[in-house]
Design goal:
CATH architecture of chain B: Up-down Bundle
Distance between the termini of chain A: 68 Å
Number of strands of chain B: 2
Largest sheet of chain A: 3 strands, mixed
Distance between the termini of chain B: 61 Å
Strand order of the largest sheet of chain B: 1-2
CATH class of chain B: Mainly Alpha
Order of helices and strands of chain A: EHEEHEEHEEHHEHEH
Number of helices of chain A: 7
CATH topology of chain B: Formate dehydrogenase/DMSO reductase fold
Order of helices and strands of chain B: HHHHHHHHHHHHHHEEHH
Oligomer: heterodimer
Number of domains of chain A: 2
Largest sheet of chain B: 2 strands, antiparallel
Helix content of chain A: 25-40%
Number of helices of chain B: 16
CATH class of the largest domain in chain A: Alpha Beta
Largest interface: A-B, 73 and 78 residues
Strand content of chain B: under 5%
Number of domains of chain B: 1
């Protein structure tokens, strides 16, 4: 139905008026209880020295990374990334270990600390409203944004738009699209007039944070097999050595083995 | 006719004060964990969106697994390198490891959001997850330890035939156990590889798994000294001081290798200046290094320290405290989580984590259960005695 190949959105901090309508729209659309939310809006107040004062606010939800760290970390594979962008969480297999919360450099997944065994404590996070985008609608937060601070579309086109906006107003924007390359690229692209650290965004390299741990996991099985083979060889070798030595003379069987340590 | 209803108790349990304390702590932990199962993790702990892992993971998982490393170390020395003289230390180390891993598993049942789904790890595999590797390894190793320890139980209930039968096939399990231990001891370090943006650069390095494995060796040696010394005091039995002294000799070697790799990596990655410029983090780092490595190296290098039972115990305690601080640093103190509520990194916001009393009491209760189980096992099973017989006989005797 939709011709969008890779769902994404832009958040433009210069346009956000901190009205928090996106939070409400999200909660209504996804039936989030009143005391929970999938979007946080951080009003950062007045910043800078007089007379160069500025304000900023940050709408924050799942970045829908191209190489999701939650997905890499989850032991039971409760996360998967759809080919067209969204990172989806599946509560049916979640064991509640909260490793995804540790892994996510943005601190996105959050957990039901107030639920016992009977209610069931799960992870929750933004889903990209698959029930809406799959029938060609915008995600609830984007649809409701009164100032078009949130724009939804195809990632490649949005990147083009983002760079066009920066080119049109180089005085207004910081010359960087956060999420174009951060953490291997994200589907939530951020434009800002204040430094991204001030919006609370972590400074991340282009390699996703899961790169090293996935490399280590890749060599685990070969390492285990060869280590097992080495140990079996050592066991057999030392055993044989002892047998030969016992045959030669029965005295002092212990002293030699100590050299191994 | 008068009915005589007085019953003379045939069994009267006389519990020592220590046992009473342990049972009380276990009871408290049980009640607290019931509250957690009814009302959620938030009801008893200070864990939050910013701090999904806290005291439980640092103490129960990281420390618990680390201090259980004596089991695979002794099994490897005795069965793989055939150093038969260490046999008297084998059973207590395997017992400590077995109980240690059971404690880890029980603690995770409190920490997990869905403890009833822990077995999902066996059927749903995400092969990029370090936690999956740890889960699989710990579950398998628990089985291996049960097999390694089972001859002791069978001997205890006078089924020596079965004990001997199992003993015949022990070597493959020992090798499997050493491989599994190597994997998950190092993987506990790999668990934090995914947090380069959160873990302080003094601790985050790609070689964390190697550092974890080497330090696990030192911890294993320290734990064997600690557990032998304490149980010899409490159960008034002899101490294998000569054997322990031999083990203690290896501690400085292991620790020097550990230090060399650790500082070499810090120098290689160009973080040398943050050794002194990171404020509290530098302080924690140096406290950890001094306790876990520098003092034990110097302490165990002297012969007179290795010959005195008291000094051995003291040295082991310092080493273990330092290494436990290392595990806490890596998994908690040096980790900075962003604060999703304001989307500010923790050091910029006022989100703090302080373990609550109920949280700590759960860990204490589980730990008490472990100590109690160790005491009971030593009392009713031939954990130590048959080893002394073995000591008297020729060590190569195939008796067990």
């Amino acid at each position: 139905m939709s011709q969008i190949k890779h769902h994404a959105y832009i958040f433009d901090a210069t346009r956000c008026i901190d009205c928090r309508a996106c939070m409400v729209a999200c909660s209504v659309e996804n039936q989030i209880p009143m005391d929970k939310t999938r979007i946080w809006v951080a009003g950062l107040g007045v910043m800078g020295e007089f007379p160069n004062l500025t304000r900023a606010s940050m709408v924050y939800h799942c970045m829908h990374c191209e190489h999701p760290d939650c997905m890499s970390a989850c032991p039971v594979g409760a996360y998967h990334k759809r080919e067209d962008g969204p990172v989806i969480y599946n509560p049916d297999v979640c064991i509640g270990c909260r490793y995804c919360m540790n892994a996510c450099p943005f601190g996105v997944p959050h957990f039901d600390y107030d639920k016992g065994l009977i209610e069931g404590a799960f992870i929750d996070k933004c889903t990209f409203c698959p029930q809406r985008i799959d029938i060609g609608q915008e995600p609830a937060c984007v649809a409701t944004c009164p100032t078009d601070a949130l724009v939804y579309g195809d990632r490649d086109e949005l990147l083009k738009i983002a760079h066009e906006r920066i080119a049109a107003h180089p005085d207004r924007y910081i010359n960087h699209v956060y999420g174009e390359f951060e953490n291997g690229g994200t589907s939530y692209l951020i434009l800002s007039h204040v430094p991204f650290e001030q919006l609370g965004l972590p400074t991340l390299p282009e390699t996703p944070v899961n790169a090293v741990s996935e490399q280590v996991m890749g060599i685990t099985i070969p390492f285990a097999l060869s280590w097992g083979a080495v140990l079996a060889g050592v066991t057999a070798g030392v055993g044989l050595y002892h047998k030969l030595k016992d045959n030669q003379d029965a005295s002092a069987p212990d002293d030699t083995a100590e050299d191994e340590k | 006719m008068k009915l005589d209803i007085t019953v003379t108790p045939r069994l009267r349990f006389k519990l020592s004060p220590l046992a009473w304390i342990l049972l009380t702590l276990m009871g408290i932990a049980f009640i607290v964990s019931m509250i957690r199962y009814a009302f959620g993790i938030g009801a008893i702990s200070d864990l939050s969106y910013s701090y999904p892992w806290g005291f439980w993971i640092s103490f129960d998982l990281f420390t618990g697994v680390a201090i259980s490393s004596g089991g695979f170390l002794m099994a490897g020395l005795v069965y793989i390198l055939h150093i038969d003289e260490f046999k008297p230390l084998l059973r207590p180390s395997v017992l400590t490891a077995f109980l240690g891993y059971i404690m880890v598993a029980v603690a995770l049942l409190v920490d997990l959001g869905h403890p009833e789904r822990i077995w999902y790890m066996m059927i749903h595999w995400n092969h990029t997850s370090v936690l999956l590797e740890i889960g699989i390894c710990v579950m398998s190793y628990l089985t291996v330890l049960a097999i390694e320890f089972s001859p002791v139980v069978f001997e205890g209930i006078r089924l020596n035939k079965i004990a001997q039968f199992i003993h015949k096939f022990i070597i493959p399990f020992v090798i499997l156990g050493v491989v599994l231990s190597t994997l998950h001891q190092s993987s506990l370090g790999s668990l934090l590889l995914i947090q380069p943006a959160k873990l302080h650069p003094l601790w985050w390095t790609p070689i964390l798994p190697i550092l974890f494995f080497i330090s696990a060796l030192a911890i294993g040696l320290g734990m064997i000294i600690l557990e032998s010394s304490l149980s010899s005091r409490y159960f008034k039995r002899g101490l294998e001081s000569k054997l322990l002294a031999k083990l203690a000799k290896a501690i400085p070697i292991v620790l020097i290798v550990y230090l060399a790799i650790k500082f070499g990596e810090i120098a290689y990655s160009g973080e040398l200046n943050s050794l002194f410029t990171s404020g509290t983090m530098s302080l924690l780092f140096w406290l950890e290094i001094i306790l876990s490595a520098l003092v034990p190296i110097a302490w165990f290098a002297f012969k007179q320290n290795r010959e005195s039972a008291n000094r051995m115990l003291l040295g082991a305690v310092i080493l273990l405290l330092g290494m436990i601080l290392n595990r806490f640093n890596v998994s908690w103190f040096a980790v900075r989580h962003p604060d999703p509520l304001t989307y500010l990194p923790t050091f910029m916001s006022n989100v703090r984590y302080l373990p609550t009393l109920p949280e700590v009491s759960v860990s204490l209760g589980i730990f008490s259960a472990g100590i109690l189980a160790f005491g009971l096992a030593v009392k009713y099973l031939p954990v130590f005695d048959s080893e002394h017989e073995a000591l008297k006989e020729a060590p190569a005797n195939s008796g067990d």
